[in-house]
Every structure is written in C-alpha cells, then in structure tokens.
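Regression test attached.
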Amino acid sequence: MPKRTDIKKILLIGSGPIVIGQACEFDYSGAQACKALREEGYTVVLVNSNPATIMTDPGMADRTYIEPVTPEAVAKIIEKERPDALLPTLGGQTGLNTAIQLAEAGVLKKFNVKMIGADEAAINKAEKRELFKAAMLKIGLDVPKSCYIHTLQQARDCLSEIGLPCVIRPGFTLGGTGGGIAYNAEEYEEIVARGLMMSLNREVLVEESALGWKEYELEVMRDKLDNVVIICSIENFDPMGVHTGDSITVAPAQTLTDKEYQRMRDAAIKIIREIGVETGGSNIQFAVQPETGRMIVIEMNPRVSRSSALASKATGFPIAKIAAKLAVGYTLSELPNDITRETPACFEPTIDYCVVKIPRFAFEKFPAADPTLTTQMKSVGEVMAIGRTFKESLQKALRGLEIKRAGLGADPAEARALAAGPGPDRERLTQLLSRPNAARIFAIRQAFKAGFDLEKIHEITNIDPWFLRNIQELIATEERLRAAAETLPKSERPSARSGIWLGTDAKKLKEDVKLLENLVPLLRDAKRDGFSDAQIGCLWGMTEDQVRELRYALKVRPAYKLVDTCAAEFEAYTPYYYSSYEDETEVRVTDKKKIMILGGGPNRIGQGIEFDYCCCHAAYAMQELGYESIMVNSNPETVSTDYDTSDLLFFEPLTLEDVLHINETLKPDGAIVQFGGQTPLNLARGLHDNGVKLVGTSVESIEAAEDRKLFNEMIERLHLMQPPGGTAMGLEEARKIADRIGYPVLVRPSYVLGGRAMEICYEPSMLQEFVNQAIEASPDAPVLIDKFIEEAIEVDVDAVSDGTDVIVAGVLEHIEHAGTHSGDAAMAMPPHSLSEKVVARLYEITEKLARELKVCGLMNVQYAVKRETIYVLEVNPRASRTVPFVAKATGVPWAAVAAKCMVGVTLKQQGITKAVVPEHICIKESVFPFNKFLGSDTILGPEMRSTGEVMGIDTNFGIAFAKAQMAANQTLPKSGKVFLSVNDADKRHAVGLAQRLKALGFEVVSTGGTHKILTTYGIASERVKKISEGRPNMLDMAKNGEIALVLNTPSGKGHHTDEAKIRSAMVAYNIPLVTSIAAAEAAIVGIEAMRAGYTVKALQDYYPVKK
Amino acid sequence: MSATTRPTARLVLEDGTVYRGRAFGAPVDRFGEVVFNTSMAGYQEILTDPSYAGQIVTMTYPLIGNYGVNEQDNESAKPHVEGFLIRELSGQRSNYRSDADLSQFLAKAGVPGMDEIDTRALTKKLRVAGVMRGVLSCAPESEKLSDADLVDRARSGPRMEGQNLAAKVSCKEPYRWEGGFVPGFGRAETDAAKHAPNAFKVVAVDFGIKQNILRCLQEVGAEVTVVPATSSATDILKHKPDGVFLSNGPGDPAAVTGAPEAIKGLLGKVPVFGICLGNQLLGLALGMKTYKLKFGHRGANHPVLEEATGKVEITSQNHGFAVDPKSLLKNVEVTHVNLNDKTVEGLKHKEFPAFSVQYHPEASPGPHDSFYLFGRFREMILAARK
C-alpha cells in the first residue's frame, strides 16, 4: 500500500527535557522519525523544548520549534503551521499526553489535524486503566485483581478485596511517578494520596501484587493491513516489583518454552488489535507466576518506549523509523530490512547473542532518598552489552556501567573493600538480597561466596534460578583463575610488583609465554565468561596492562560479530558489531581513512545527552570529510548507537581494554576522546600510552587543565585571576589551605564530572566531612580547596580553536549567583547583565587560554565575575554540556566545526571567522528529579543534580525565561498567592520582590521574619504558621491548592530543616518553587512579560538554516 | 556438569572444516546433514520433529537447555535428529513444566550433542557453502581418530538427495489418533470458538508427522486416522475419509516412492491438505518438480505472503527442498510466497479441492499466525460433503 497523499505536513511532538523515565531514547526515536518522514517527502514540524537533542538540530525537521511541550504552546504552533497530521507516538509519555490534551481541548478538530499512528480512542484505551482492564477481560486475557479509585475513601473500601501487599499506580504519569508498593495500611494511604495528587486525571489503580513473579516485555509492531510482528522479547532479571526501567533486563526471553512464548505472543497480538493501535510500535508487559505459569497482562504502552529503543539496539531493527513509515500508510512487507537489504521489514528478528541491560542510578546525589527499588523508576541511565552468553554480557555491562567495577566482583574495587574490612554478614546479606537495590547483583555474588546456596538466594530474591546459576558459574570460573594463580611463573626480579612476570623484558616474556601456554584454555574460558583484564589481574596479582600483554602474547583476542536481525541467515550490510571470544571475526576493514569516536556510556547526572549530541556531530562531520566514522558506545538510548549515525558501530563498554581491541582491529587514523564527557577523557592517557592516535587537543593539555599546579602556573603566566586555593592529599593539608585563604571554601575532588562531591564549606567544622566525601569520589587523587567567591556572577564560555584561531561560540551568564553547579544553573545567552567591557575581556581571556593550552577542538571556561573582576574557575579543553545549547542559539553546529578542526580543517577553511552573537534571548533552565527522590532538599549547590535541560527562546528576556520555566514544568502563575520566605541576608530583597508582586496583582503570604520586615515596610501580607508553629500551616495551604508560587531562599541546608520540608513538599505538589533572589527577580520579569501573552517561532525563522 | 569437565567432541564437515567443543548427550558418533535453525525457543520440538531425521542440527541462538525438557512438548515419541550443536548448554533448567535436562534427554535417546563451538561461524559457512554432510564425534573411542579419518566418514555418507527417509520414520500400521493439546496451551482456550468434535473424518498420511498437526486437525473437528507413508489411494479411501492430510517429513520428496501416485488417486475424490513434505508431494503429484535449497529454511520468523489477501504470516519453517515454480502447471496456482527469497510456500489446485503449504501452520515451535489453514481445510471438507 503506498504512502498517504492526503497528508503533506506532519507535526511531531518531542518528549521535552531529560527526566527519569524519559531520556534520550526519545531523541533517538524522534530523530529517526524526522529522517523517515522527510525521506518520504513530508514536511515535518517538530516541537521539543530540549536543545540538547539531535532532533532539534535545525536541519532535522523543516520547521523546528524549541518551545515548551505544553498543550498551550503546541496549540499555538498548530495554529501557525496548520499541519495535516499529528504523530503522537514517538515523543514518549509527554508527547502522548500533550496530544490527548490537544484532542480533548478541541484544538485538533478546530484545525483539522488528524492523529496518525494511534488515535485518541486507542491511547485512552491503553492508558486509562479501567478501559484497559475491561479490554483485556473482553479478549479473554488474565489481569491482576484491581480497583480504580478516585478518593481515599474508595481506596479504604477496596483494600479488603485486593489485600496487602499491593501495587499502587497513578494514571497518566511517566516512569510510574507517584506509584509504589504498600505492605501495610499506613503506607497504603500515604502512597495512594500521593498518587492521586500526581495523576493527571486523579485516578489511581490499586492492584493485586504479582511481587516476585517473572516479568516479561514484548515489543510489537502493527501495520494498517493488520500485519503484526514481535520485534523482541525481554525477560527481567529482577522479578515483578521493580520498575522495568530499574530492572536488569535480558533479551531475548530465556526461560520460556516455545509454548509459553507463543501464548504470550498470541496475547500481545490480540492486545494491540483490541486496543486499536493502528500502526506502529507498542510495548506490552506480562507477569508469569513461576510455579504455575499463570500469565497476566500488566500494561501496554501504545507508543514507542524506552524498551523500544533497547529492542532496536538489541536486534538491529529500527522500530521508530519503521513506526513512522507505517504511520503514513506503508505496510511492513513494503519496507526493506535495512540490514539485509534483500529481505523485508515484515519479519521477526532472531538474534544469536544475549543482550543485558543494567540501569544506572544516582542515589549518591540524593542521600535522603530511599534507595530501595520499587515500581517507581529511579534510574537515570542504562548500559547495554552484547555477548554470546548471559555471563559474558552481564560482565561486559557491569564494566560498562562505570561504577568503578571491572565486572561482577573479583576486581580491584572489591579487593579494596575487602582490605578495608569484612564484608556484610549473613543477616546484612539477607537484607541486601530481599530489598531490591542498585547493588543487589553484587550482593548475590557475595551471598554465594558466603555459602548461601542457589535455592536460598532464589527464595529470598525470587530471581529465576537460571540467572542465579549463571552467576554461580562465574564464581566457578573465578575459582579456577584463583587456583591457577599458584602456577604462574614467578619473576626472579625482586622489583616485580606482582611477584610474577612484568612484561617489559622481551627474553623473559618469551620464556614466560612458553610456561604459560597451558593457561590458554583457562584464559579463554575466562574471557568467554566476560572477565576483564582488570579482574584477571586482580586474581593473578598483575596489573591490567600486564594481563593484556600476556594475553596478546598468548594470542587470546576477541572476535567481532555482527548484529544482523537474522542470526546470520542472510548477509548483513550494516557494520554493527560487538565483541566476543569466538573463532571467527566478521569485521570488514576498508582502506579508507578512519576516525574513532568514543561516546559517553550510560547517562548519569552530569553526563548525558549533551555529550551524545557532540559525538553524533563528530560522526557527521567525519563522514562529510570523507572519513569512515567509528562509534564506540554502550548506551542503548542514544542517537549515537543508531547504526545510521556512523559508518561502523561498536556496541562495547568504554574501557581501556575494549577500546584498545577496536583500535588494534581497525587501526583508525585518529580517535576523538573530547566529546563523550568524562568517560573517554579518563581513558585518554591510557589510550595515548598504548599507541592510539588521539586527535585534537593533546593529552598533555587535557592534563594541564586538570592538574592544579600546572593550571596555577598557567594562570600566573597569563596574568589572570583565580580564586586563591590549593590542593590537598588529606584533611590536614586541606585545613591548612582553608585557614590560609579563609572560609567559605569550595571543596571538590579532581577528575569527576557533574560536581560529584563538590561542596561549599562555610565553617571549619564541616571541612572533614566534605574532604572525606571528595576523597571517596576520586580516591588517590588530590582534593581541590578554593576560596568561594560569594555573590559573584558565574559565566560559561564555549570556544572552538583549530590550534591557530580561536572563536568564542557562546557566552552564557548564569542567572543564579555563583555556587550553583553550572549544569544546574539557569543561564542566559547572550549575557543580560554583564557590561560590554567585561564581555570583551571574557573573549580576550578565553582566547588566551585556548592558545596557551594549544586547544584544538572545543573548550569551555567557567568564570566568576565580581564587580568587573574576572576570576577563572575552571578550564575544560573538551566538549561541554552547553555546546548543543549554544549551537541551537546561534545556528552553528559547533561540535561538528570543532571535530573538523581536530582533523586539520581550519576555522577559516570552514568559513568560521567571528563569534556569533544572537539577537534573540536564549534561556537554559535545568530540570530536576526531586519528585522521584521525595524528601531530598531541592536547594541547588555545587553538586549537580539536574537530569536535563530546556531552552526558552524569545526576543524578550522575560518571555524567554517564562517559556523556559513552562518547558521545565514550572509554569509561572498569572495570579494567586505567593508564599515568600527568605533568609536573613536576603530580607532586604524581600521588600522589593513583594512590592513588584503586589503590583502584578498577587497576594503575598509569609511567615515570621519575612512577615515582620514586610510589615515594617508597610506591605500587607497574610501571615501563616511555619510547620513547627502548629497547624494550619504553610503546608496545609499548599495541600489545599492555595499557593501559586513559592519564593524561598535557604538559610541552612539539609533535608531535616523546616524549610527543606517545605521545598520538598512543593515538589510533591508540583507548585513552582524559586530558591534564589536572582531567579525570583527573573521570574517576576517573566510574569510581567507574559501578561501580554507570547508567540512561538521556529528556529528557521531566527536564523538561516543550510539544507 | 560444567562445560570444562565434559569430554571434548568434534564436528567435521565434508569440506574438511573441524569444530572442537564439549560433548553432551550420548557419547557416540553420528553422521548427518548439518543444518541450522534460527528459532530462539522450541529446541525440544525441533529435536523431536521427525522431519529432522538424517540431520545434525545447530541452533543459532547460543543459550540452549535453559528450560530443560518436559513430557508435554515432544512432537513425536523420541528425538529424530542425528546430533545437536549449540554454543552453550545451560547448567540449570528453569521452568515449572520441566522434568528432565536436555543432556539426559538426548543421552537417553542415543543422540550426541556438542556445545562451546562458534555456532555463528558454522551457520555462516552453511549459508555461504550450503548445507553439508558431517560427522559429530562424541564417542570416547573416536578420540584417537584423526580429523582426516572423520572427514572421510563425512564424505562417504549419503547425500540427502535421493533419500526416502519418510518411509523410515512413518508409522507402520494405521491407527486412530487420540490426544489433545497440552492443557493451558490449546487453541480453543485462547482462540476461535470450539468446534464440535469428530464432525468429519480425516486420514493423515504419516511421512513423519508432528503431534501438533494432529492436535490442530482435531481442534477443527476432525476424527483422525493416521496411515503409513506407503499407503496407496485405495488403502486411504478404505477409511472413507472426508478429507486427506499429507504430513511433513524428512528427506528428499522425489525419493518418496508411491506417494505422488497415491495422491493422484485422491485428487477430485476427496479434499486434500498438505504441509511441508506434503506440499512437495502434492506438487510432484500434480506434475511439478522439486529441488534442493542451498541451506533451506529452518526457523520461526519467515514472512510468507498470501497472494490472495496481501496479508503476511510469520511462519514456522523446516525444509531443505522446495517446489520449483518454473514447473508450474496451468491447473495449479501458487497461493503463498516466501518474502525473503520468493520461494513457493503454498499451492492450490484450481479445480479440485486440494491445497498445501510449505511451512508449518501447526507451529510448535513457532508463531500461530497460520492456524487459519486448518479452518480452511475444514471449510473445504464441509463444502465438499454438501
């Protein structure tokens, strides 16, 4: 069936900022959809507030709106663009919800916009749980017993029927926000109340618990001829009770017989038909009772999901791309399978490897949050690994997770922990096993080692015995390695650290290799089980480098296998590879020039989509210049791991060992390590020392910027200013430095990203705790102690250099005062308050620094400006988080420009000769996961805690700021009551703020001190009680929906304080919260500006876009 | 038993390639045609499918044995494969229905197995060079044999072409089939309305029939009598069937002597439905030719287009031979085509009620998309009775 010709223009809704539950997988799906639809000649209108995405690159869609993904803003876009159709299924839950709201508000009907893929009725049937349950029962499928409730009383009434424990799921939220498992009546009421509050339709499902059952997912696709195929099955390692986004998952299903699998497949096909998803992909979750095989349907996502991205990467089948083509009328049999070319997309991929996905958590940044894994998603990223066995994939995934583990134990981290003291006792182990948590996989290993048997561990965890047995087998291999350590030849040289072979003496090497040849089978078995060189080294008393050298000498090297959708039945054309210790390697090496790009690995706070964006641009730039681009990454959510993005894709962990293997196989002409964030940067030295040709800024320069001493020398040499400070190897040194420079001081570890363990220390009594945290975050590296400059304006400058010329790409002025991590701060570009003189000086200093460091590529400098004095805080000769934002603001793809510089194309040759200063205002605002970590204080500090960002663009500062707030789901109110409560230092500002609010028609509510000062200045305000003053208090007002906005600046920090409780509650009730005077001022400007309304404008109308 | 403590084993191919791995199952040597199957689940059904007689099967999915084996999922009384090749034998069977482990199951049936080999490399070889004769050597006493000795044995074994294996695996006497679906996995429990039992009589000619075909026939209302592969038209018609079913089976269709003649004798007299070998034999009976495919179709994900409806079915397949479309005659229509390689997947006689498919609508293992064909057979029978 040919594509539809009644449609010309299609609106695509993106998923907005990266939040827990909605990450770069929707950039991947949206970018694929843009390409697929434009390929067919459709005009694509895109809306997404997230500037860090590839999809919002102005070349991806015909009309790109970086505007809030809200019904109001999207309605304006519809009115302006008049699309024929809306494709709602590729922008995550946000896209789906926005589409439904537009339909319900009559906007789609008014402007005659058709929903394609899935219509309103289908979406409602899948998403509204009552309708879904009825639909499942109608087609004869089993579902958990459940009640739908809209009030607490209803909840109490149905409890006896459902029983405890039970699962509570609010309707229409993403990532299961607000849900949970209740084990007792008290917990039950608490979770239900929260769920009702967060649910878009004030509906909560209370459900029979299938805790401990086996959990499965199927990815299903359907075309308009009603052909249905299953793309991938997924089995969860963690049984029911842990959100699938937080579970370790495995593809394909491992422990289902064909009869059971086909029963599930039949059910999935019936479900997609009954729900009525006309075309595209859906994800359906099932639970299976392990003792009886009883199968129940848990839920269905009538859209492309996180699991779809995983399934796409796991099978090679491009779900989003195909979904987009099906939406415009093609059938599966008409579309080719890109990988085999000759066979159609209408088939079910079969894989000949095992895929393991492991979530990545960030609990260390939210110490007050409960780290137990529940039905509410808490992970911030994920890693995927491909191997030929579960054991191999599991260990590859664990070392790719970048939690400083080299695999499943038997690694240096474990050795260090054991050296520090005995591991957990049996009781503690039982606890760690029974409450799902981020480290449970390691607890299973420890339990085996402590003598728990498989049955016992199964009984405690309900994890399938098949998975447990595999872990047991890894321990068996480890024991064989350990036993073999005794037989290793001993070196005669006393200097040998390990007591055995050192690997530098060629003659000695030869002799040892002879002795060691009988170890080859064992070494090979270990590598086939996924053991890293670091693990083997740990067991053999050798360094990772020594193991590698020994292994090379013994010719134990990996093979590369293809991901081909068909288990080798047909020839595959897409070079998508993974490593495994097998006989035959399939890599095709051409004689073209090649550049290897190292990605960022799993998303985490501080390192996310921004770096993936840069890596993708590096790949595009290399292809443009005629190089073969080789992408190495382990993150299944990303655009970079799309087989379309680079010429060769290696889905591999980003470790020295794995990257060196690729380097030796392909011998690229250069490698780019500066674009993937800290991950590849940490590998730079090792790669360089092992002969990898790094392009761009040299390793020495990268190190010079990180090395405090060299950095200080450079600042002095250039006659620049920096806050006084020093480096300390321990607490005593730190104390000396702090005493010398005076408090407050900024304490931070070196070699980390995202301000991990960075703190402002106001008094000597806190120093010890902060220094210890820093040491823990980056062991063996010095702690940096700097004078913290209060009330300074912080500025981020991004620049590009080709080694000769330096061009400033963007100057971003932080809205909050210095002290907030740059990743968390709101920023304005161009600067809104800095004098021309200061800006000119910032350009000058940036250029100086770039020249001095011989930067070739990207560079980011952070400055603090106080009364015209400019302090250099940090220089990073690498891609920064703000690069995509600056690119969207200026219309210049700076990452691509920099990548070209790195391979020798000068800025002049590229026609980049001067800085681009936009005439419009661009505001970057950050988005935080506080609603997933209730109880955490929301005050921003030097440790980064945001998961994503949005951009507000307008010609008016106030509107740009208000748009950014709207996009960050913090829509500023137009009227109502504002709760004002500021610390003593900010009291003088409170008066002005209150006056302006009053003038805008707001009522002011305040407590004690603030109320007093307002009264003194003759400003009427309603006084409410603090929490500690009894009830009714401020929280009661908030709960009753009486508060429209909260301005609260902190006097102290810590989740235990009264004000922290208020802040945390505001997050729970989704009330806009502003926590600094500077931000409050911007918010008031925004509210003022928004009174006249706002308009939307496509990027293509802000600046010319090259097609 | 972990792989490292098991004895070593070898697979040698007629082209001289040797794969070394670890033995499981029976400690014996076996000769066979080496083929690959791309199904990710369903190894027990594959092992017990009589169509694999004479073949050493390698699974492309690397992790096998995970759910053990059970009494219920056998497609015939015993495994029919000559040998079984996989990447990793599971150390743990985990499934509520499992009652034995895979290695024991094969050992009991006298079938050798080998794991720890690069099954993807082997699959690629078979794809590029075509299926090959090979010897799987797991017997301890064969350890002394050189690779070359084993290669000679592989080369001296018979080729699949010309072998009448259907006669070997077929039942020897007619019998009335009594059985039913595995409880919980029946069609009527999940699908269409249940048909009245024993509404009509079907004679199923057993060229190596799978249990699930019999279950599916019963499900649509047939009373089934199974007869040997060597039955003549007269033998078959003696049972007064309302319809005749031609089963799947192993070996070369052209070598199944007598079958095409028997089928010719049925055409026009009684509705005929064939599956797999049954499809090829119907083709031969209609005067068409069959040929050997390079590496065959064995898996559970092959897309088949039904020409009349434009609908695509994801099918279960297991065949090394196919009907040659170039030999198509006027009175025959190709109803189904494989979308991967455009081979013939279904035939229909234009005048007589007779049709067949090359794939396996009974699935087991594989998807259930094509179950409608049994309903179609039923309709055909009911129409013919009027």
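Expected vs. actual: identical. Chain A touches chain B through 66 residues (CB under 8 Å).
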